[in-house]
């Protein structure tokens, strides 16, 4: 057992020391203590205390009275360490998530939980601890117990008690935490390491398994359902002595290691809900996922570090929790100490899904070969992949000059708090060339997907002076509102370096990113990969015209041709289906284009002007050969370099022209017609169906304090050439009711068509002359006449009206009044004539 091994270790150490005294040589054995390990405590979430029934994230469960778990601070003063046990012999403890503080596993949602565990220093002999999911009716009082009380030892506080009172699987299961699932981190083998030895009641759960023909290591892990009788099986030829069924047993190296930082072990729990409630969920767990010092993915299997990576996927039967209508599953830890050199057991949480449920990621995309780099065949370090990259083929290498995109990110998925104050720190990979100024960008996406924001990453603002590290402070992530940022993507754009002369390859190491926030902490890293020379190349060349000038309603054709070479020899391209064409407009999303050409080696990509912005557009085009058969017989992807096309787009506009814009002179007219106006598009396309809007202004220094008077109208055209396709003509008029007044009036006219195109402004000047009419006697006798009329008869007075300067006028515009003696004025009927004339007799 481990205890014996450690005693032997101390004996060997003493022996070597004595040998050293006799032979003049010494051997240094480096031991470490809790105080040493404390210096390497990983950054964790603040837990505060275990005593507030409504606000504490975790609360104390049952214990046997020998030790009460508490929260202690790390060396930085952060109260983030759950001290589950504290070097107290024979103590049994438990700590549980507080459902009243909304801290639980929601079995209907994806949940990710990560934490660090520490099980003592070089001289420690703890029994161990267990991570537990449970819905025991006793709630936080659930713990291993029988008629004698709480029992520790091999139960670790969660498994059933095998005693003289419990000699059946059912009675043992009944003394365990019920409706539960447990993953143990066992520091002490209880039982024999080989067959044929006498078994001991109460210390047999880890004995040699005859059925599986295997022995358990002194320090080990495994999982099962503590409250199920099937989790325990009788040991043959014994009187009611049982062993625990360990699913996915693995050897652990928990303590007594060569360095205090190796005493910290990272655990990831990734829960994926079942299709229907009460069904089979997926629970993935990993042990030693990353290192305590740099938080880099731990791929080592070297046992002396204690950081051997372990990963398993469990089909979790959620019906065993008997949750009925609830979706809240309590989680927590139990522990037990032995009586020989008990030690400390600590837990530090990185992420708790009830607070912040989020995922982080890091991976590399080869933009040249349109593939995703993936050299890690395991699943211990899961990362999500953006939707745009999921369909990309997998590659394990890149070629010199390939465009590489390093992607890192966080997706916020839920929790009662927003993810705040997250600082991202990533190491910039070597053997990749990045831009001298803008090294990449950050993209935020809103919860409802309707809003994005881009932030440039520059060497001046985000990169360390030695060029090795990039930092960026992430904005708050949440999904309470549609406009909240719910995802952040950090992208670095680089180019694979050339392979040095005399070498056959160049290694690009992994790039690690750390996200550390107030209530969420996570790590991710890209896979390392090699840069190798390509076996074949695909060259792409532009053909005329370039640059091109088009209108928004036009089409740009991007013409070019391809040359495929293998070993320097040109190989004809006979099937255009063997390659894909990709293009990107102004640095936007990658689009899969379609070539139009009878020659398989040539292409022409049509780009509609409506897809482009007005002005200059930069369009990159790349060809990817998807059906290349390498010399090894495998089908590989070969990508060309990117080429750039320039397309200048002129805006489709509305043009208004008038038959003339000469000054219009009129005399006190009520309605002044404007010259005929014609509307058309500048690119020759037809006008859209619908009504055109006309916006007018009239300015006169003698009216409205000289300020323009504005009004709008939707007149009917006098001529329309076709439906939805031709030009339109308008005969418009301006009247005094619109603001036309005596003096010089400046009139502007502007059109907006149904396509929202706005025309140029036409300007007209209307001069309304201020000339008074002259009224004279029409009988040429200066009005000296005698009129004889009956009392009720009409009297006619001959009159003549004219303007002094001979200006023509419309008689109908005149208004006449008459007065007889001292009577009130009377209005005389208007003259009906509308014919302009210089004088009028009536």
Instruction: Write down the CATH class of the largest domain.
Output: Mainly Beta
Q: What structural category do the secondary elements indicate?
A: mainly beta
What is the subunit organization of this protein?
single chain
Helix content: under 10%
Please summarize the sheet with the most strands: 8 strands, antiparallel
Mean pLDDT: 88
Q: In one word, what is the shape?
A: elongated
Number of domains: 5
Question: What percentage of amino acids are in beta strands?
Answer: 35-45%
Low-confidence stretches: 1-29
CATH topology of the largest domain: Jelly Rolls
Work out the helix count.
4
| Alpha-carbon distance between the two ends | 136 Å
Number of strands: 60
Known CATH architecture of the largest domain: Sandwich
The value of Rg in angstroms is 44 Å
What does this structure look like?
There is one protein chain. With 842 residues, this protein is mainly β. It has 5 domains: 31-351, Jelly Rolls (Sandwich); 359-532, Immunoglobulin-like; 536-650, Immunoglobulin-like (Sandwich), CATH 2.60.40.10; 654-768, Immunoglobulin-like (Sandwich), CATH 2.60.40; 771-842, no CATH class. Helices cover 4% and strands 40% of the residues. It contains 4 helices and 60 strands. Strands 1, 4, 5, 7, 10, 11, 14 and 18 form an 8-stranded antiparallel sheet that branches. Strands 20, 21, 22, 24, 26, 27, 28 and 30 form an 8-stranded mixed sheet that branches. It is elongated, with a radius of gyration of 44 Å. Residues 1-29 have low confidence and may be disordered. Residues 694-721 have a biased composition (Polar residues). Residues 683-728 are annotated as: Disordered.
